[in-house]
Amino acid sequence: MDHKEHYLYGTLMALAQDQTDAISKLTLGTLGFFGKSRIQSRGREIGKFITKISNHKNKQGTQDIYESIQEDLNSIKNKDFPFDKKEYSGGTFDTLKIYLDELLI
Q1: Which end of the chain is more exposed for a tag (fewer CB within 10 A), N or C?
Q2: Closest Cα partner for 88 from 99, 97, 79?
Q3: Residue 1: its pLDDT value, please?
Q4: SS (H, E, C) 36-48
Q5: Predicted structure pTM score
Q6: pLDDT tens-digit readout, 38-48
């Protein structure tokens, strides 16, 4: 894994965690106006970063990009990813799975 992928995954994980937190607050009714307005644009940014990761993997010759991203996310979840030992909520990975399925399947 190169530095570009580290950056892309780091940003993707931060966006996904923010999105998961915002959706949780929305369901509890505690998300403000500006928080609500950011959900859609943050979702677009998540999609852009998944596409950037996909394009990068394609340039590297990865055959099954969806599977490769899933493996990377599992490594992050299990704290086996070299750059990121941060803990993310299970909801973050669920959110990313939805976006991956929409964009890559």
Answers
A1: C
A2: 79
A3: 76
A4: HHHHHHHHHHHHH
A5: 0.92
A6: 999 999 999 99
